[in-house]
Amino acid sequence: MTRITLKAPAKINLALRVGNRRADGFHEIRSLMQAISLYDEITISITEPGSVEEFFFIDGP
């Protein structure tokens, strides 16, 4: 089994303005974000063809 672990950095929205709806149904937005030193750790595992495995773990506060 192949496994890779990545960090997904956190951010804080300091401001968020939602604009008009676009033709695709989504809204235009303007956002001011600040990166912070926290992160989530995501592990992806590739299993054998035809096998199905689903796991969800939360560790920490």
The DSSP helix count reads 0
Kindly give the count of domains.
1
Low-confidence stretches: none
Average predicted local confidence, pLDDT: 88
General form: flat
The rounded Rg comes to 18 Å
Distance between the termini: 29 Å
Largest sheet: 2 strands, antiparallel
Helix content: under 10%
Strand order of the largest sheet: 1-2
Percent of sequence in beta strands: over 45%
The class by helix and strand makeup works out as mainly beta
What letter string, H or E per element, gives the SSE order?
Answer: EE
Could you describe the 3D structure shown?
With 61 residues, the chain is mainly β. The protein has one domain (2-46). The chain is 0% helix and 66% strand. It has strands spanning 2-21, 27-46. The chain has a two-stranded antiparallel ribbon. A hairpin with a 5-residue loop joins strand 1 and strand 2 (27-46). 0% of the residues are buried. The mean pLDDT is 88.
Quick summary:
Helix content is 0%, strand content 66%. Strand 1 and strand 2 (27-46) form a beta hairpin.
Question: Could you give the topology of this structure?
Answer:
Blueprint: E1 2-21, E2 27-46
List the defining traits of the structure above.
single chain, about 60 residues, mainly beta, two-stranded antiparallel sheet
